[in-house]
Write a structure and sequence with these properties.
It contains 2 helices and no strands. The protein is mainly α and 95 residues long. The protein is elongated.
């Protein structure tokens, strides 16, 4: 009967079965194995932030509906940028 050999002391240990890798808990995380491209990530975030533009000036209560809609739109854009960054971080090897 043979026993499995273990790596020499100080050698990197192979991942144990059942130990999750960073980002695998995210939807589609197991399918993404390539590391994030910093230039692509920066371009995506820059494009999303460019959509924000300047905040409109509020002059009176009549514009509350428009202001509320703008805040909601801006929040969605920021949430998308956040998701891009979270997805990128999920592909980075943790030390």
């Amino acid at each position: 009967m043979s026993t499995p050999s273990s790596p020499p002391p100080g050698a990197p240990q192979p991942p144990r079965p059942g130990i999750p890798l960073p980002g695998t808990h995210l939807p589609g995380g197991q399918a993404r194995q390539e590391p994030a491209d910093p230039h692509r990530i920066k371009a995506e975030v820059d494009a999303l932030l460019a959509e924000l533009g300047a905040a409109p000036a509020v002059t009176g209560p009549a514009e509350n509906t428009e202001t509320g809609a703008d805040i909601t739109r801006r929040a969605r854009i920021l949430e998308q940028a956040h998701d891009v960054l979270v997805d990128a971080l999920a592909t980075v090897d943790k030390i």
